[in-house]
Amino acid sequence: MLKIVQTKPYSDQKMGTGGLRKKTKVMMQPHYFENFIQSIFNTIGNLAGKVFVVGGDGRYYNDKAIQQFIKMAAANGVSKLIIGQNGFLSTPASSNILLKYKTDGGFVFSASHNPGGIDGDFGVKYANETGGQIPTSISDKIYESTKQITEYKIYESADIDLSKIGNFKLGDMQIEVIDSVSDYVEMMQNIFDFDALKQLFQKGFSMKFDAFNAVTGPYAIRIFEDILGAKKGTVINSQPLPDFGGKHPDPNLTYATELLNIMNNPNSPDFGAANDGDGDRNMILGRNFFVSPSDSLAILTDYYSIIPAYKNGIYGVAKSCPTSTAVQRVAKEHNLPYYEVPTGWKYFVNLMDSKRITLCGEESFGTGSNHIREKDGIWAILYWLSIIAKTGKSVEEITREHWKKYGRSYYLRFDFEGLDTSVADKLMQDLEARLPKLEGKIFDNFEVSEAHPFIYNDPVDKSSTKNGLIVKFKDGSRIVYRLSGTGSSGATLRVYLEKFSKTELDKNPRQMLDNLLAIAMEIAEITERTDKKEADIVT
Ligand code: G1P
Ligand code: ZN
């Protein structure tokens, strides 16, 4: 039975870098989730004939949210939903299904790499028919709609059993529950040489993959263990759990401690990797060796011709502004068109759709290609395994060779978390105002060559985006400042540091960047304004 529920707007439903992300308890407030979904439906308009893909990363409240979503979609006249079994779909798998079955959009219920559980975070990512998350022009309209909402429509019915694959109906709406993994596997088989990868494991190559008890466990087991023949137990924390077993599913040097402990010893497996909660981020490790995501993007680009899907050539490559310049040097060497976009995967979508780029990545452990419109964790791992299979070299050897050829961008990101929003906003505003005066100034051995906000003019839709402040130095070093757009409370200031060296290839990144860090703190008056003497998280 169709029901119309009266509601009142919430004032805080503005999407950030990756959809709407909130504390789980905020999302669970009466009508909060429903208001947001109805606002999206209202913004889309006529839903007759529309087909959407739906899934999530299995975190707490996923099950309830999906059932509410199904009932609202039916009540709003959606024609069909394609849903991952048990409500599970990784973000890359969802983007693939969205494009493969030419649907009108997709919803992933996830707060990505943020912790789950009732005291953790919950989120909604909405992609349109491009397969990628919507541009700001649309998310702004949705935000306007959330501020005016007075009612939402919902079907009153029993829950749909999502554990069974098959076709169902709710009112006039069709529901197809699909295997969450098989379309994704097929796509990977069309990109990479699976026979070569099987041989690698047959020769005794060993690996550990940490799924953090989030959505990628079933994907990783099917691909690495069942198909490629990696040893049973290669995938750890493979069971999706509502609270991720208490883990923080962010694949980086701070949170992937279990995997780092396995990899940081002389008898470790040959290769280590992890994905985040919804499977779009990746971390690559060798034995006792960490590959920075910026270097990873550069290395994958350098080797594109060994991958079956890319061997006939790639269009070009892009990185987000704070990502290191390593990939720029590779693009130059291979004569590839090169782009720099604001932080957030959605900015790559137009470049992919217009055939300007094939590969792209961000320093925040995101790498991907135009096979879908989201970053893709398992894809990045298969790409690395392909390079290893082809060259017979270790992760460390491949990376050191890269530095030898191109030089090394020492790179780290420093996050100052839990800041008062007004303090953080003021810090950025005042810093922006001071930037013109910085040019030509000398700090230590560093002379400022440029200082300005990062402004991106999209070559396709002609929109203009300002995100972050850049200070560049004569020797090629850079500081980028920006505020996070994915937090669920307070503000996080991110400070990204890069220093290039052609000759010093074996230094400790922290030591190499120490002076620059002090300069970055001084220029932005971080300690004076936030009381923080050091960053909370360094990745
Ligand atoms: C962060 C990352 C950004 C990434 C986004 C979604 O956003 O920095 O690169 O695209 O998560 O995964 P931020 O919190 O910095 O706005
Ligand atoms: Zn993610």
Describe the structure.
- The protein is an alpha/beta fold.
- It is built from 17 helices and 25 strands.
- A seven-stranded mixed sheet has the order 2-6-5-3-4-9-8, with helices on both faces. A seven-stranded antiparallel sheet has the order 20-21-22-23-24-19-25.
- The mean pLDDT is 97.
- The protein binds 1-O-phosphono-alpha-D-glucopyranose and zinc ion (ZN).
- The site of 1-O-phosphono-alpha-D-glucopyranose has 14 residues, from loops.
Rounded to the nearest angstrom, the radius of gyration is 23 Å
Quantity of strands, as a count: 25
Portion in strands: 25-35%
Euclidean distance between termini CA atoms: 51 Å
Bound heterogens, unique = 1-O-phosphono-alpha-D-glucopyranose, zinc ion
Number of helices: 17
Strand order of the largest sheet: 2-6-5-3-4-9-8
Helix/strand-derived category reads alpha/beta
Q: Helix amount, in percent? A: 25-40%
Short description:
With 539 residues, the chain is of the alpha/beta class.
